[in-house]
Amino acid sequence: MIVVMKNEATKEEIDNVKALIKELGYTPHPIEGILRTVIGVVGDDRGKPHHAEVLRQSNGVDKVVPIEQPYKLASREVQGSTSPVKVAGTIVGDNNISVIAGPCSVENEEQLMTIAKAVKAAGATMLRGGAFKPRTSPYSFQGLGKEGLKLLAAAREETGLPIVTELMDPDDIELLEEYADVLQIGARNSQNYALLKLVGKSKKAVLLKRGMSTTINEFLMCAEYILSEGNPNVILCERGIRTFETATRNTFDLNAIPVLKEKTHLPVFADPSHGTGYWQYVTSMSLAAIAAGADGLAIEVHNQPEIAVSDGGQSLKPEKFEDLMHRAAPVANAIGRTI
Ligand code: PEP
Ligand code: MN
Predict the structure, then answer these.
(1) pLDDT tens digits, the chain, 339 residues: what are they?
(2) 135: CA distance to ligand 2 center in Å?
(3) What is the pTM of this model?
(4) What is the 315 CA–ligand 2 centroid distance (Å)?
(5) Which sign, positive or negative, has the C-alpha torsion 274, 240, 133, 162?
(6) Centre of ligand 2 from the C-alpha of residue 263, in Å
(7) Which domains does the chain carry?
């Protein structure tokens, strides 16, 4: 079950409820959201309905909700609307659709600045760029590391766009926290539970990508690892899954968007760049993702995709990205949203 505290609950009331949960033999997992605190009550509560009643009567408690799903804190049973996520003073997951855009990898200052300024001008709300890259081959470009993070920080300074960048190695978390606004957990680490627990202890928002063979329920359990460590700022990202199809790099699972929106209150983003693997399909799948209810997009953009060190073939040139943003607006408006 989940204890939902009232918006105006005091710290003392929250502490008292946590103590009571322990007294009853459970483990409390508090998550301090923007509006209110919810406390996950983990333990076997079968046959003990009176425990829910005791908690419900405590000061500061709004309601006690039994949760049927194994993903207790991520479940939409906790909250019927999308949870807003704080990113560097801005909000993700409200009526306005967020757009993360930027290169796959940070390559050099000129490349990053050119792209950052172009995506900002076109209406992107966050800048992406990998400094630590998960590459299939150990002989491929592995990222600029700390140098890349410094370039991202300079681009943020120039454009005001918050930075999204991938964390691969637990040893790098402090470094990433120093530079990034959003920690990305990539598809390959989606079920790296040690890494998930680590970012669950962070104050930074997390962009959690779906693993390439992770089911939607497994994906939600990955999010649960982060939430259960106390970090409420989790954004999910559908980025395509492995299927028998070879005409595209991955199969972008458009189904996942409405399914996730039904199952969880976490914001759901779509990454049609990795989802399709070809720039030619990125715009149409972005529009489809918005129509399907995505709260945000993640799009790879490169000023010279033909010489990009990674994912050039799926990167939009800045003009194409601008065109995508123009075409996205009426689709968002048609479903009562803005972009
Ligand atoms: C990326 O965002 O560049 C990336 C490596 O994505 P994924 O983890 O989804 O493959
Ligand atoms: Mn990429």
Answers:
(1) 999 999 999 999 999 999 999 999 999 988 888 788 999 998 888 788 899 999 999 999 999 988 888 898 999 988 889 999 989 978 999 999 999 999 999 999 999 999 999 999 999 999 999 999 999 999 999 999 999 999 999 999 999 999 999 999 999 999 999 999 999 999 999 999 999 999 999 999 999 999 999 999 999 999 999 999 999 999 999 999 999 999 999 999 999 999 999 999 999 999 999 999 999 999 999 999 999 999 999 999 999 999 999 999 999 999 999 999 999 999 999 999 999
(2) 9
(3) 0.94
(4) 8
(5) positive
(6) 27
(7) 2-65 (3.30.70.1140), 85-334 (3.20.20.70)
Proximal ligand: closest to the CA of 167: 1
The minimum-distance atom of ligand 1 relative to the CA of 188 is: 8
Could you list which residues have their CB under 5 Å from ion ligand 2? Answer: 104, 311
Contact 101, 124 (CB under 8 A): yes
**Ligand 2 mean position to 296 CA, how many Å?**
17
Contact 21, 41 (CB under 8 A): yes
Ligand 1 atom nearest to CA at 133: 5
> What's the CA dihedral at 296, 300, 301, 307 to 10 degrees?
180
Q: Is 209 in the pocket of ligand 1 (CB under 6 A)?
A: yes
**Pocket flag, ligand 1, residue 210 (CB < 6 Å):** no
Quick check: CB of 289 below 6 Å from ligand 1? no
